[in-house]
Amino acid sequence: MAISKNVHHASEHSSDTWLTPPDLVKLLGRFDLDPCTDPHMPWVTAKKMIALPQDGLSIKWKGMVFCNPPYSKVGPWVDKMVEHGNGILLVSAKSPDSHWGNKMLRNADSVLFIKRRIKFYYVDGTQSKGRILPNALAAFGEEAQDRLLRLKGSPYDGVYMRRVE
Predict the structure, then answer these.
(1) How far is 157 from 42, CA to CA, in rounded Å?
(2) Which of 65, 67, 68, 80 has its CA 20 to 30 A from that of 44?
(3) What total of structural domains would you count in the chain?
(4) Is the residue at 69 inside a domain?
(5) Chain segment 147-160, per-residue pLDDT in tens
(6) Which backbone phi and psi does 71 adopt, to 5 degrees?
(7) Is the peptide bond before 53 cis (omega within 30 degrees of 0)?
(8) How many whole angstroms from its chain centre is CA 120?
(9) What is the b/e burial string over 62-76, where b = at least 16 CB atoms within 10 angstroms of the residue's CB?
């Protein structure tokens, strides 16, 4: 199986493909675009889903975007989301001191640091044990902020922080 550059990498499972849990996508609501999905994604994350060999960074983003970028190369996806300004990024919460982490925190309207580790899925349908990294959801735009608030009381609840000027 070829390893996609648009997915997460870790040693917990023999596959390197980490798929966003469908219940998280459902709780967040309908998205117009997911520019960084896996070619074998078994459920819908957005009306338009971009997977390799297409490059989600090279297209024009439109509407409400959901992006679960590869943890090995988050920076360009943060740059694109900051430029677009309308959507939600799912990222590692371990890197706020990285260049991309600083840029995300300076530009996101709000961030939800999820209290539990996300149990991602693999292409074969099995679920991870959620032992890899803590996660955060960064909201860009008012609608995205409202969507993060939908997670209150869910398994994806956590510490919600809103940027102030």
Answers:
(1) 25
(2) 80
(3) 1
(4) yes
(5) 999 999 999 999 99
(6) -65, -20
(7) yes
(8) 11
(9) eebbbbbbbbeebee
